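Much of the work behind modern protein science is quiet bookkeeping, done one molecule at a time. The protein below has been through that process, and both of its lines are reproduced in full.
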Amino acid sequence: MTVGRASGTGSDIRRRAGELSRDGQGVTGPLNGYHHETYAFPLPATHELSARFERAKLRAPRPGLLWFDRRCFASEDLLLTALQGRVDRIPEITRVDGGVYLQGFIEGRTLDARQVPGRGLSRRHADQLGRFFGQLVSIDPKELAERDVTRICAPDDWTAEGDSAGFLDRLIRFTEEQVHRDHGEPYRNLFGELGVNADALGRLRKRTVELRARPFALLHCDLHRKNLIVDRDGDLWVIDWELAMIGDPLYDLATHLHLMGYPKQEEARVKEVWVAAVEEARPGSSYGWEEDLPLLLAYKRVQSVFTDVIRTALLLGSDAESNWRVLPRAAWRIQRVLAAAERELYGAGTAPSMRQVVTAYRNWFRTSHGGEAEATAVTRSGT
């Protein structure tokens, strides 16, 4: 993996959006999003996207980020280009002068803005999500290479086709080495006060040999409510493909269930939708899913702990005391993440209380050289 700074600045991107917009007006942004600086703007009537979209969006990687997930593709834009006509309701994309790619902006609302927390999907959206999963597993990963969708890592670092155990092992190793070891050092005392160490990841890694082999597929890997858009006609669209990779299709289901937090009855329905969709599209894609899903979900719970503890420290800035109004809510979220992974992290013990989490962050800020923590951008990793 190569570590370096992402290129581009927000001012450059906004200026470019203004140049591409109709009459140079109406630029909106930056829009919410962790990995990219994104602006939306009205399209000129002569633009090829204008027949189907009122606006376009221009994206570029945010500089100075920590990457908490193992990445696969060198270019989200090239991936989306290759998927045009193969996957329903994804952003249409086009290239303009200077090698810049524009995506059609989906007019609508994110699923989280339309739903009461914990509510399940409508029948229509569940059917569309199932069709989406089926379309993903129907894409032969070799086709992507033929369409110039390059992968970040070298071929000798690819997980062998169908090696679900090796796929999960590499994900766990990335969290161990790139997140906890390399980026987690400034937060070592914070993790210590929370009772969190990498032993949980090691225990999970030993269990990867239990996984059954499934044919590899294209995965989105970030299917949460903010990446699911309901358009004005009520249809479900999928955006933000920067974490897409090739691997075990069951991992996409595990990630989706973890991020969505469905009620039990709805979770069971989504599982049924996924199994039916992937088996119809590519038989064998769900082989052993009932036995293997718990291990993948356990990894997602533990991964969230290492990710969210660091992200929260960065969000709070350099002085926890000056952010005392923000800290309790942030601590509440961390306590929930710790409690969800209680079995994996603490065994027979219990997760820290919210008060203990608040204390841990305050103690860490007081003893960490003013609480300053520099984030190094990780722009290249592979799978």
In short: Residues 324 and 367 are 17 Å apart (CA to CA).
